[in-house]
Give the backbone structure.
Amino acid sequence: MNRSAQINRKTKETDITMTLEIDGSGISKIDTGIGFFDHMLEGFAKHGFFDLTVAIRGDLKVDGHHTVEDAGIVLGTAIKEAVGSKAGIKRYGYFILPMDDALALCAVDLCGRPYFIFDCDFTAEKVGELETELVREFFYAVSYAAGMNLHIKMLSGINNHHMIEAIFKAFAKALDEATSKDERIRDVLSTKGSL
C-alpha cells in the first residue's frame, strides 16, 4: 500500500503544493522562499526517510509567518492523509538527537488528538531569513492539522542554528518510528479499537 499524499492549498497569503511519501528514501525538492526553512525541511525528509516535495509562494514581503505556519498546516494534513487508518503502525515515536551543543527531545503520538508542548528558548531573532519564533508556530500547526500529540523539548543548546536543526531532525526520527509498521499490530494500537 502506497502511503502518500498530495496536498494543494491556496489562500490570499500562500499558494502551497506538497507531496509526501511516508515510505520513501529521503529525497526532497523544497522551495519555500526562505533558505533556512528549506534546509530544515530537507533535513526532515532525509533523516525521516520521507520523500517530500514542497513549493510555496507566500507573502514574504510581509514576513515569513504565513509561509511557515501554512507549511505546517499542509504538512500535518499530508501526514494525516498518508498514514490513513493507522492500522499496523507503532503509533508512538520518540528520539533524543544531539547536534554539537544542542540536544533535542521529540515525542509523537499519532492518536488523532492534537496536543502540543514546546519547551525551547531561542536567543536570536532569526537564523538566516527564518524568524526563530516561527519554529513553534510551524510545529503547532503540524500537530493540530495531523491530530497528533507532539512534545518538543530542548534539553541543552547554545547555538540557535544547531537547536532548530536538532528539533527538525528529532521530529523526523520520532515520526519515522511512529509511522513504522509492526507485524504484531493487527489493527490499530488502542484498547478503544480506533484512533
Remarks:
- DSSP finds four helices and ten strands in the chain.
